[in-house]
Amino acid sequence: VYNCSLETSAKESVDRCTSAPSQSLPSDIQENIHSVPKSMARYRVDAMIQAARYWWSRVRQVDGIGMKVIFRAKHEGSPIRYFTRMAWATTKTLGCAVSDNCGSTWFVACHYYEGGNVVDDVVYEKGTPCSACPIGYFCNEMKLCQSAS
Description:
The chain is α+β, with helices and mostly antiparallel strands. It has a single domain (4-147), classed as CATH 3.40.33.10. The chain contains three helices and five strands; from the N terminus they run αβααββββ. Strands 1-3-2 form a three-stranded antiparallel sheet, with helices on both faces. A two-stranded antiparallel ribbon has the order 4-5. It is globular. Residues 1-120 form the SCP domain. This is SCP-like protein. It holds the Pfam family CAP.
């Protein structure tokens, strides 16, 4: 579920004009942050797409989470943590922002609540999509559980 408060905190992060992680986030909020040169992305939405693709692609470019999809201690400082933040099944909400106030660079951040990346926990349960949707949810066209309300 999209969360405007998380978007606001992500906006505060990108307005710092650095890819360094925010130090002031509560422990239950996690952050992905990425910079995109404006020469590579003409519009804000292009920068957002590039950042999301970058984070998602980390799953195939580093020592992975394995067939059991378990987040291990070795993943804490690894680039795969960007992918697992996006894929973490129990994350309830997210909010993202793109800053254009940083000269020739777009800065993109997404904040996730309740953040994942818990050592020795599964990133997501393997199985048939939507087979475990809670009561009051339905399977949408993207094969994700979505609230009926």
